[in-house]
Amino acid sequence: MRTLVRLKQLALEVPCSMWRDGCCWNFSLRRLQSNMSMLKHLTSKITATGPISVAEYMREALTNPVSGYYVKNDMLGVDGDFITSPEISQIFGELLGVWCVSEWMAAGKSSVLQLVELGPGRGSLTSDILRVFSQLKAVLGKVDLSVHLVEISPKLSQVQADCLTTDQTQAFDGDDVPVYRSGTTNTGLPVYWYRQIEDVPRGFSIFIAHEFIDALPIHKFQEGEKRHHVEVCPEGGVIVQKLSNRIAEDGGAALIADYGHDGTKTDTFRGFKGHQLHNVLEAPGTADLTADVDFSYLRKMTEDHVTCLGPITQQSFLKNMGIDTRLQILLRSCPDSSSRAQLMHGYDILMNPEKMGHRFHFFSVLSRSRLAAIKATLLPVAGFTELRLH
Ligand SMILES: C[S@@+](CC[C@H](N)C(=O)[O-])C[C@H]1O[C@@H](n2cnc3c(N)ncnc32)[C@H](O)[C@@H]1O
Q1: Pocket of ligand 1 contains residue 212 by CB under 6 Å
Q2: In terms of DSSP bridges, do strands 252-261 and 293-294 run parallel, antiparallel, or are they unpaired?
Q3: 194 lines ligand 1 (CB under 6 A)
Q4: For 203-222, how does the pLDDT look when each residue is reduced to its tens digit (9 = 90+)?
Q5: Confidence band (pLDDT; 50, 70, 90) for 34?
Q6: Is the CB of 119 within 6 Å of ligand 1?
Q7: How far does the centroid of ligand 1 lie from the alpha carbon of residue 153, in Å?
Q8: Cα 139 to middle of ligand 1, angstroms
Q9: Fewer CB within 10 A of the terminal residue: the chain, N end or C end?
Q10: Ligand 1 center to 212 CA (angstroms)
Q11: For 76-377, CATH number?
């Protein structure tokens, strides 16, 4: 790991003058009508205690409990600020569903299976995974299956409940209750919502984190007087450590998919609003803030008792999972040319190296015993090697 001892933390000096100056203030007001409380909160914080770090700025802008971007908005989809793979094509979630079943089988078909998604957005990914679980009911047999969602946003948890459950979900009051919402899917599976991973019950779990770690606060460091910057996401590291410990002790696996690199990129902090790049300092709380995930850092944060695979590109992972075969099956059952065109368009966005194919990467954390099984039985980990369909 690059040493940070001599690095100086870059404080992000949100220029207060920007917000005191008449012109800028008017400009901000026009653009920020929807989140004045965030602007006031940040301005008074900086005025009272001085500059805040990039990480603190990011945390406030995204997850401040009153006016944070994620807490207040449903930002996903064509009408929102950005679109993610599960929202683009059902094939994405279906292939991840196959991955979950494949890893559950390879790990010895535990009698309990918890599907845990971190930052589930609109709930589409879990919904597509659960459809595969229903289709593979015969394979899953009598497994005790439950769904656990780690979501900080009350607004998005409601969207997820609308997507995943048929009954009225029950919401529980108070910041200290571990489960703040629960419900049942149309196939009778229990679904629980938590604010943090520690609250998810122990037991064999498959963890999925898609575009979750890129939303966690990063620190930016500058090496000496040079303009060489380093970005570090300690919260992402801590979460991966917790996943690793649980996988080592309880069994299971984690699949992390995100924009990312293997320790090769710097200065990736950016904003998105209305599907366009957005100045990170403009209109805080009204735009998504994100930074590429450094998978080499996540790997270093796992303990010796787990094995990491990847990162590999989304294009390779989905190809290995059999996306081409699945596409052909769906195309054959498509009733009209416009649905076929839509399927092909989704495939292109997911797979094209210029689009998501090479920008997104897959990374997996597995128990050491799984690695031993790979060596002993040559049972590959789906997605990271070619899937043999026989
Ligand atoms: C970029 S969205 C990705 C949504 C979804 N995984 C997808 O790919 O469509 C990030 C998700 O993580 C949630 N989130 C962000 N920070 C979080 C935190 N600290 N704890 C729990 N959830 C968080 C957001 O509310 C949102 O659901």
Answers
A1: yes
A2: parallel
A3: no
A4: 999 999 999 999 999 999 98
A5: low
A6: yes
A7: 8
A8: 31
A9: C
A10: 5
A11: 3.40.50.12710
Atom of ligand 1 at shortest distance to CA of 70?
Answer: 25
CA distance 285 to 53: 16
For the Cβ of 86 lying below 6 angstroms from any atom of ligand 1, the answer is yes
Structure tokens, 260: 């990312």
Residue nearest to atom 11 of ligand 1 (CA): 119
Q: Is the CB of 88 under 6 A from ligand 1?
A: no
> Would you say the pTM of this structure is higher than 0.70?
yes
Q: Are 293 and 232 in contact (CB under 8 A)?
A: no
CA angle 131, 108, 191 (to 5 degrees): 35
CB 213 within 8 A of CB 255: no
Contact 63, 347 (CB under 8 A): no
Structural tokens at position 35 = 């989140």
How does pLDDT run across 283-332, given as a tens digit for each residue?
Answer: 999 999 999 999 999 999 997 889 999 999 999 999 999 999 999 999 99
